[in-house]
Structure formats: structure tokens, C-alpha cells
Amino acid sequence: MKVLIIGGGGREHAIAWKISQSPKVDKLYCAPGNAGIREIAECVDIGVMDFDRQVDFAKEKKIDLTVIGPDDPLVAGAVDAFEAAGLRVFGPRKSAALLEGSKSFSKDLMKKYGIPTAGYEVFDSPEAALAYLKTASIPIVLKADGLALGKGVFICNTREEAENGVKALMLDKRFGSAGNRIVAEEFMTGREVSVLSFVDGKTVKIMTSAQDHKRAKDGDQGLNTGGMGTFSPSPFYTEEVDKFCKAYIYQATVDAMKAEGREFKGIIFFGLMLTEKGPRVLEYNARFGDPETQVVLPRMKNDIVEVLEACIDGTLDQIDLQFEENAAVCVVLASEGYPEKYEKGFPIAGLEAFKHRTGYFAFHAGSKLEDNGVVVTDGGRVLGVTAVGTDLKEARNNAYEAVTWVSFKNKYMRRDIGKGIEKA
């Protein structure tokens, strides 16, 4: 098979690595890719939103399967463009990707079909939102309705913070048009857990659990980011939690989308909050999480190409999805200043250390190969250094050992990814 991956981040590097393990695949392309993906795939200089050129390339190269990685192209209709050209593609159509593309749509869906989530209100004007905040319960959570690179969520502990949040989202347009509409949501407390799943329109198969660390600084301080590290599995995702979610959340979501005429084929990422009253849905994503993918796929036993094809063909019920009885931890190496201002273009040393060690990975997120053959930093999140171990403690130790192999100017990371979790 010839396979094309759309995207160029750490998630796509992990997907490319996993696809490259498949005996079914003999040629792998990635558009646009990055310096790490370049080592296992032929990278093509086509942007993630350039559907016409992607489709032309897939036709020209006789691509057998295209996998869409990021949220933006999915929400904008990349899958529809490939299907219209008669090409085989993995991911939800535009109508189904709205599950991630609009927070208000997903909240209304959960309300309509009785899927447990936080109470909420939707606002199209800053005046209405500010008026509501005068009497709303505090703390409160404000969310941009549209896509905001995982950063459009404000947890407001005071009324003043909430008012400033409305202004930042709706008046200052910090996340552009994503903040034209906002969701004000009840503040929930508990453990967060991420659960990725494969979906073929009717069947849902759950992957192993994971947990992300969103805040920029140790102790969950600082600004929200796209994710500073993650671990898998989550010790808090118990058999009891799994049983509840399978009964009231996972299948219910897939059935709800089908009932709405928005059949979902692809990945549903369930962001869960384990509250005192039971699991609640925090958010949905319509694609692999980043950096959750970097800890989930190294633990997956199956040939991923077989699973992706089963999702497209509606035969997922025939797949026995299996994961290793181990653990994985990913520590993101970022550029100092991320998620705000940061410099890039600094040479990255030490990457060769990963080539001869089993169970250690350097998934590239923001890297670039210069004409002189040197790999340099090219983003806020630069690398996802991932390691597996027999349990979370060993995986964490291995990951933090591996981050010492890599160096670049202004390297920054959190020191507490998965810390204390191994005792849970």
C-alpha cells in the first residue's frame, strides 16, 4: 500500500511511526511533515488546508489510504474533498467533525441525548455573556466555540477573571473567529482522563486511557498549552469508570451522531472529568490527541492500518483491539516562552541517541531540516520525548532520562509529568 498522512506535528510523527510498522505498507508520504517524519516517510511541501493539491497528489501517486491528522482540515471538509474524488480516506466528514468544531453543537448534542456533562449556557454577544456573569456561580469555565489550538479555555476563579475572559474571547478576539460564540460552563472538579476511540459509524472501540498536562508550568500553573506531556494508562480510569462510560457516554455519542444524520467514522477523543457524581464529558475531539497519541500508539499491539481500514469499511466489530500491559510517559521539550513568544531556528543535538534504543522515541512536533542537514527548532513544542516501562514509575524515569540526551538553546520542559501518579 501507499499511504499519505496529512499534518506535520508530534501526533502525525507518532501516526507515521505506527503506520510504518505495518507489513501492508511499502511507501509512506506526509504533507507537509517535519524533520523527524522525514526519516520514515517522503515529505511533500503541501499545506494541511490545501485540499486541491492534496487530492491531486493522491491521484498522481495512486495513494491507497490518506490519514488526516489535525483538526482544522477535518472541520473544514478535507475528508469530503478526498471522498468526492473517489479516494480512500480516514477521518470524519465535515458534518461529523462539527463534534469538535463547535463546542455549542457538542454541548447541545449531549443535552439532547442525555450524555453526562457540565451545565452550560451559550452566548453570541459579549453583552449577554457579561450580563449572565453578574449572577452566575463562580468559579466558571469559558470556552471559545470554535477551534483554538487547545488553548481557548479559561478557568475563572473570580467574577473579574470571568469578565476579562469574555473580553479576551469575544472583544479582543484572542482566538479570532473561534470566539465569536462562547460557552459558559459549570466548573467541575475531579481527575481528567483522555480516552481515544476508533469509530466506524456504528461500532466504537476504546483505546487505552491517557492523561494530559495542559498548563505550561510545574504544578499545573501558568497558561494553557496544546499539552506539555502525558502518560498512559491512567490509574484513575478504573473498571467501574470504564463500565459507566461504555454504558452512558461512548456508544451513546456514536448513536447520537448517527441519529442526527452525522455518521461519525474516524477517531473520537473523549475528554472526561471523573467527578464525585461520576464521569462527565469535558470535551470531544474528532481526531487523535496531541500528545496523547505519543503514549497510546507505542502501547498498541494491532496493525493500525487494519484498524483504520475497518473504520472506513464499517467492520470495526471484527477487530480485537489490544494494548501492551505496560506504561508510557511523554515529556514535551518546548521553546522557552511557549505558548506565547519564543525564538526558533536553534540546532537540536542528541537525536541520534534514540535510534539504537528500544522503547524510547523522540516524536518531532516543531522541527525543520535545514539545507545543510542540521535539524533546528521550528515551533513552540519541539519534541515529545516518550519512553515505555513496565509501569508508570519506570516509564517516567525512562522518559526523564531520555530528555537529558537532547539539547537545544532555550529548551524548556515541565519536571512533573506523571509525578506521584504511579502511587495512585
From TrEMBL:
Domain ATP-grasp, chain residue ranges per copy: 107-313
Record has Transmembrane helix as a keyword: no
SMART domains: GARS_A, GARS_C
Record GO terms (molecular function): ATP binding; metal ion binding; phosphoribosylamine-glycine ligase activity
PROSITE patterns per the UniProt record, alphabetical: ATP_GRASP, GARS
UniProt-listed Pfam families: GARS_A (PF01071), GARS_C (PF02843), GARS_N (PF02844)
GO biological process: one example: purine nucleobase biosynthetic process
Cofactor(s) required for function per UniProt: Mg(2+); Mn(2+)
Keywords associated with the record: ATP-binding, Ligase, Manganese, Metal-binding, Nucleotide-binding, Purine biosynthesis
Pathway participation: Purine metabolism; IMP biosynthesis via de novo pathway; N(1)-(5-phospho-D-ribosyl)glycinamide from 5-phospho-alpha-D-ribose 1-diphosphate: step 2/2
Main enzyme class: ligase
Catalytic activity reported: 5-phospho-beta-D-ribosylamine + glycine + ATP = N(1)-(5-phospho-beta-D-ribosyl)glycinamide + ADP + phosphate + H(+)
NCBIfam families: purD (TIGR00877)
Assigned protein family: Belongs to the GARS family.
Name recorded for this polypeptide: Phosphoribosylamine--glycine ligase
Species in which this protein is naturally found: Lacrimispora saccharolytica (strain ATCC 35040 / DSM 2544 / NRCC 2533 / WM1)
Classification lineage: Bacteria, Bacillati, Bacillota, Clostridia, Lachnospirales
Gene name tied to this protein: purD
